Amino acid sequence: MQEIGTLVVVVLKARNLPDKHSLYKQDVFSQVVLGGSTKATKIDIKGGQHPVWDEELRFPIYQKTKQEDRLMEVSCWRKEPRGAECIGKGTVDVEETLRTGEFDDWVKLEESGTYRGDLYLEMTYYAAGPVPLQRRKTKMPASDRLVR
User: Fold this and answer.
1) Is residue 49 part of a domain?
2) SMART domains from the xrefs (predicted)?
3) Could you report how far apart the first and last alpha carbons of the chain are, in Å?
4) SS3 for 70?
5) DSSP assignment of 73-99, as one string?
């Protein structure tokens, strides 16, 4: 398969995550799955309900891929002593991002049809061919960018 570009996904932060712990805050990480490739952020120790990562993940984009490979699954996990427990999952269709070159918005997380919080993603697609379009300003105000 021929690589046509790179999708850069910045997992910025999450909000309104349920925290089953009452005496301390949960340790949270995020996971992104695209086209069979899985990547995860570092664990935000005591991130609680509003963890912040601001971590960049890169995914190669190939020319001839199935439609289901254009769906990106994002999830948040709480690190427990005996493994990890899924907090919630969401999906993003990256087809639009591959056309426009950019995406930045909150992605709704659910588990068994129940709302489990939101994850903020910034995605930029860099084609292997011509120079990318000018980057537009993010929708999130700078004052809210890295605060819990």
Assistant:
1) yes
2) C2 (SM00239)
3) 41
4) helix
5) EEEEEEEETTEEEEEEEEEEETHHHHH
Residue-level pLDDT at 137:
76
Which residues, 6 or more positions from 135, have their beta carbon under 8 angstroms from its beta carbon?
A: 102, 124
DSSP bridge partners of 29: 77
**pLDDT tens digits along 55-67:** 999 999 988 767 7
Q: Which two tokens mark 62? A: 């190939």
- Asked if residues 26 and 20 have their Cβ atoms less than 8 Å apart, the reply is yes
Total number of domains in the chain: 1
CATH of the domain at 64: 2.60.40.150
Q: Determine, yes or no, domain membership for 30.
A: yes
Per the structure, the complete domain to which residue 80 belongs is given by 3-126
What pTM was estimated for this model as a whole? Answer: 0.82
* Residue 142 CB partners (closer than 8 Å, separation 6+): none
- Quickly state the pLDDT bin for 133 (edges 50, 70, 90): low
| Residue 47 counted as domain residue | yes
